[in-house]
Amino acid sequence: MRETDPTNDGTNRKKTNSTSRRRFMAASALVGAGAFGLGGPVGAVAADEHGGGMDDSGMSGEFEDDIAILNYARTLEFLEAEFYRRGLDTLGCSGLLDASLLADFGQPIRTRVFDDLTVIRDHEFAHAEVLGKTIEDLGGDPIEQPEFDFGTAVEDPDEFLVTAAILEDTGVGAYAGAAPSIQNAELVPPALSIHSVEARHASFLRVLGGEVGFPAAFDEALSREEVLERAAPFIVE
Prior knowledge:
- By secondary structure, the protein is mainly α.
- The chain contains 8 helices and 2 strands; from the N terminus they run αααααβαααβ.
């Protein structure tokens, strides 16, 4: 249950949320395709723009094989995991609770939010590890964790929470967009099990950001290029 402050109409929270989102998306728009590898040649995205459609194997053209899809997912899991690790380490519990976005929440939520985000961090690292082992089982080479730069998103508590929600939404859309390209049917159930957990993360972060945790009846599936535009600002070449 949330304790409300009659002197706070939510205006400051909404303003912080909106400003952080605009800052994030503006940064995304400035980054070109060359900054994002995602387990395969950067040219795969550009090639898809020219080739398009489904190839003879049923693939959408965005991924060369299942290993490329798994490395794509592994990159995103590393991105989320490292984001949480740095943000939680930098802010600490007290710093996180300074977020204006959390000001209206009662003590039961406030006392748990740091620990809950720590659990989400551990989930992301577990996902990356399992995806790596699956790639090895298929005879592929799992990518190493890229170098990331999150800037002030891991230093300002409100920006941290807003960015976390955006990254989680991006992860949910990325899994939904890539799943139809999976050729090995045995990979679909574990991929869906990760996808559903990512959706729970996204819902939780949305609520912390003052938004509805389940805003639509259907989630948007994101293309590889759309995911690139959102994630590339944080990945160092």
